């Protein structure tokens, strides 16, 4: 069966131009499929085409070694062309939709890292076509996830592929939703457990070996014994001997230091009795040594600056180019490892991670996340208050020690703090069993139908396009309009207080007071409407009772202090106006009722228009002459308080 379709595929591959456009390639594949009509069933044809395409891809992959010797890019161009053919066959339903992913899975396993990078570039370029119809946790999505995870595991064992790993993770984050649980360690499983390493302390054997080495060195000395020893050599020798005696004496520190890797790799050990005390004792012994090494390094850097030595060019270029595939646990290397800044940073970072993890097991913290549904993430361990205090203090010391490391210790410590803070949020999300945190599109129910934001706000947007209503305050603002309505026209009108004078002045002041009363009443009415008690939902749900209720008398209107003051001011102004007008216009008092000042002003104006100048009262003149004297001989004035006073001549 393969022999029937193989010639057609061979002719297709031979007729392909270099890097054909997708439309041209699709047309060529369609012609090949139309020419390869057979009596075989569609399922068998799919299987045959898949076998032939896989064979063509793997045959080309076998030539990778020879092709890369030439140093050209023709091999990668041919491989990308073959992958395009496989993808086109899949899009035309001549093969299963998972075929490209199975081919990529096998291909990435047999290619070098450099070739995998070029193949992944093709995946990025064809991502839109490859991911069409992809459903997370089903079908080709699982194959893609498994393939790229296997590739990530290969890359994690080397230190120069960080950018490649980032490209893979970026693609996965774009393909799968942010809350996808397939990449989350839901069961809380830890990595491989650390295999303990120990050395036995045998002082006698060690001393004998040291003596033998010294004797052998003495026999092989070629230089004369009187070779001068510089002070620097003495200092370095004493320093190295001191470090050797401090760190490796008896192997105690070696065993203590590497014993910490066991709780680092397996935190559930803290559920065992005595584990925390051993961990605390080990950390208490190791941290001073780490601090001493950091202080010594800073002192050496300071002395080097004093000697004005220029830093080595290679040191600046290789500061960040380091990678620890695995810790080297040789006893002879521990001194050098602790003297290395990057090694100390790795250890302190591990310690900070574990201490942060232990803080989630205090009694208060566990009450916030421990539930029956996430038992796999829990352990039978609770951090007591004294232990929690020690963990917090130690974590602060670790972060402070990270700031003291060089180079850029403060920036490194801030980065570590940011990473730990973000990890707290991810751990919280995992403890809550990865609840969905992406928000659904906004919707609203209108006429028993959920509609989107655009449709729900259509009427509101149409209303916003209508011309606005006429502004309530014709002079721009409420205070300015009120001042104008009260008769103030100049700044002097506002600054100068009211002074008693002609009847017109009293009428003007009364109108201002009336306007103030009116505005105050309007404001009270608006406040009453806003504060009107709305019926509660429960009360509104109750049906109205049929029993006739007795008539309720309306409650008295609430008294307002400002209104009371304005009314009193109005009465006081009217009383003063009447007292001021009684001397000249007393003849009009019988026409103004109970003291209408505006009506009095009209009578006065009518009198002036008719040209009538009638004295107040002829009879009152005589009485005035007898009682208090003539107004001409003893004139009177009206004071500011409304009292009529005698004016001195």
TrEMBL record:
Residues 534-545, 638-649 have a biased composition (Basic and acidic residues). One of its GO terms (cellular component) is THO complex part of transcription export complex. Coiled coil: none annotated. Pfam families: efThoc1 (PF11957). Residues 211-245, 534-556, 607-649 are annotated as: Disordered. PANTHER family: HPR1, THO COMPLEX SUBUNIT 1. This is THO complex subunit 1.
């Amino acid at each position: 069966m393969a022999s029937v379709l193989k010639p057609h595929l061979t002719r297709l591959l031979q007729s392909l131009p270099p890097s054909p456009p997708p439309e041209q390639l699709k047309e060529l594949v369609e012609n090949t499929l139309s020419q390869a009509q057979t009596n075989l069933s569609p399922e068998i044809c799919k299987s045959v085409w898949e076998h032939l395409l896989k064979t063509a891809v793997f045959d080309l992959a076998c030539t990778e070694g020879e092709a890369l010797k030439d140093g050209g890019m023709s091999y990668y161009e041919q491989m990308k062309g073959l992958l395009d053919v496989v993808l086109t066959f899949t899009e035309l339903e001549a093969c299963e939709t998972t075929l490209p992913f199975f081919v990529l899975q096998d291909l990435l396993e047999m290619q070098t890292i450099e070739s995998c990078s070029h193949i992944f570039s093709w995946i990025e370029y064809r991502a839109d076509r490859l991911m069409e119809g992809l459903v997370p946790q089903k079908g080709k999505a699982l194959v893609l996830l498994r393939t790229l995870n296997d590739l990530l595991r290969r890359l994690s064992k080397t230190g120069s592929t960080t950018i490649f790993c980032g490209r893979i993770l970026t693609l996965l984050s774009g393909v799968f939703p942010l809350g996808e649980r397939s990449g989350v360690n839901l069961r809380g499983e830890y990595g491989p457990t650390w295999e303990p390493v120990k050395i036995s302390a045998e002082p006698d054997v060690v001393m004998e070996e040291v003596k033998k080495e010294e004797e052998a060195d003495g026999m092989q000395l070629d230089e004369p014994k009187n070779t001068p020893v510089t002070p620097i050599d003495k200092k370095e020798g004493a320093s190295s001997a001191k470090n050797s005696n401090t760190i490796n004496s008896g192997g105690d520190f070696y065993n203590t230091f590497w014993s910490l890797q066991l709780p680092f790799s397996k935190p559930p050990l803290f559920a065992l009795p005595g584990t925390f005390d051993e961990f605390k004792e080990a950390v208490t012994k190791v941290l001073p040594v780490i601090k001493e090494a950091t202080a010594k390094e800073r002192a050496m850097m300071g002395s080097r600056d004093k000697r004005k030595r220029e830093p080595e060019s290679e040191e600046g270029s290789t500061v960040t180019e380091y990678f620890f595939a695995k810790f080297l646990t040789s006893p002879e290397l521990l001194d050098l490892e602790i003297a290395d800044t990057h090694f100390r940073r790795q250890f302190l970072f591990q310690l900070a991670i574990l201490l942060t993890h232990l803080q989630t097991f205090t009694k208060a913290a566990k009450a916030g996340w421990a539930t029956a549904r996430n038992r796999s993430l829990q352990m039978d361990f609770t951090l007591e208050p004294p232990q929690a205090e020690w963990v917090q203090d130690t974590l602060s010391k670790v972060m402070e020690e990270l700031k003291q490391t060089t180079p850029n210790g403060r920036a490194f410590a801030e980065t570590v703090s940011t990473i730990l803070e973000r990890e707290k949020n991810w751990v919280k999300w995992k403890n809550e069993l990865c609840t969905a945190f992406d928000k659904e599109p906004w919707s609203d129910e209108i006429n028993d139908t959920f509609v989107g934001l655009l449709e729900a706000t259509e009427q509101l947007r149409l209303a916003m396009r209508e011309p606005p209503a006429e502004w309530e305050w014709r002079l721009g603002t409420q205070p300015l309009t009120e001042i104008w309505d009260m008769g103030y026209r100049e700044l002097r009108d506002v600054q100068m207080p009211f002074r008693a004078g002609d009847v017109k002045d009293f009428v003007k002041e009364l109108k201002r007071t009336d306007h103030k009363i009116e505005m105050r009443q309007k404001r009270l009415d608006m406040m009453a409407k806003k504060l009107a008690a709305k019926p509660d939902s429960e009360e509104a749900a109750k049906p109205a009772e049929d029993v006739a209720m007795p008539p309720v008398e309306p409650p008295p209107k609430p008294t307002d202090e400002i209104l009371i003051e304005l009314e009193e001011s109005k009465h006081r102004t009217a009383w003063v106006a009447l007292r001021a007008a009684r001397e000249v216009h007393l003849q009009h008092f019988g026409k103004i009722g109970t003291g209408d000042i505006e009506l009095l002003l009209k009578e006065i104006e009518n009198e002036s228009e008719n040209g009538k100048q009638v004295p107040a009262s002829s009879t009152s003149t005589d009485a005035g002459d007898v009682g208090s004297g003539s107004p001409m001989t003893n004139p009177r004035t009206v004071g500011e308080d409304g009292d009529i006073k005698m004016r001195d001549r």
